[in-house]
Amino acid sequence: MKILVPVKRVVDANVKIRVKPDGTGIDFANVKMAMNPFDEISVEEALRIKEAGLATEVVVVSIGPDKAAETLRTGLAMGADRGILVKTDARIEPLAVAKLLKAVIAAEEPGLVILGKQAIDDDSNQTGQMLAALLGWPQATFASKIVLTDGGATVSREIDGGSETIALKLPAIVTTDLRLNEPRYASLPNIMKAKKKPLDETTPEALGVDVTPRLTVLGTVEPAGRTGGIKVASAAELVAKLKEAGAI
């Protein structure tokens, strides 16, 4: 069985985001980029399934500019077998991502697709669900445990009321939660080997997908800064201050 893992290039989770002075978007100049943390979990889970002898190949795919190849190389250094870059400089929305992945899946024919539940840049949490709908495949979101069975998979996931376990028939779509695993670090020898692993390139046009944005970003603003706190001398003064603030 082949496992396909989409990965996204995002601003490193430890970097403070800067907004452009004109409010037209995020300033990416001299900003460290990295693989989306949820996608690292997806790659790790796919590799564990392969190491258990339940999969024969792990393919990572990314959609973005030339530099997205660096993100694919990270996945290859972790242990993935090969990568696919859908090269585009356009702003890609979740629906366009799902359509592009559908086209890649039609060519690759994987038995399982594992995605991060969301990307930390836009937090849309839409691509996995849209992809499952476009393919007509069963899906399991926010997976905290994945167990492959004969021709299927059992997925445990957290819900508002506790947890649930669902059974899927393969091929299927699974999106990962933080509790699924702890991603490995790529060793130096594997980083060197990753440079020689195959990395194919294609474009949205070659896949026959229109990626024209359907949404317009009106503006981007930074969150308001936190104001300093105050000290009160008594419970009565505390209640009075809370009433002034409209908290009670």
Order of helices and strands: EEEHEHEHEHEEEEHEHH
CATH uppermost class:
Alpha Beta
Estimate what percentage of residues fall within beta strands: 25-35%
Helix content: 25-40%
Can you tell me the number of structural domains? 1
What is the number of beta strands? 11
The secondary structure category is: alpha/beta
Q: Taking Cα atoms only, what radius of gyration do you get, to the nearest Å?
A: 21 Å
The CATH homologous superfamily name equals HUPs
The number of helices is 7
What's the end-to-end separation, in Å? 58 Å
Shape-level CATH architecture: 3-Layer(aba) Sandwich
Strand order of the largest sheet: 9-8-7-10-6-1-4-5-11
Shape call: globular
CATH topology: Rossmann fold
Low-confidence stretches: none
On the 0 to 100 scale, the average pLDDT is 92
Instruction: Give a quick account of the main beta sheet: strands, pairing sense, barrel closure.
Output: 9 strands, mixed
In quaternary terms, these chains amount to single chain
Keywords: Electron transport, Transport
InterPro entries: ET-Flavoprotein_bsu_CS, ETF_a/b_N, ETF_b, ETF_beta_N, Rossmann-like_a/b/a_fold
Pfam families: ETF
Domain Electron transfer flavoprotein alpha/beta-subunit N-terminal: 23-211
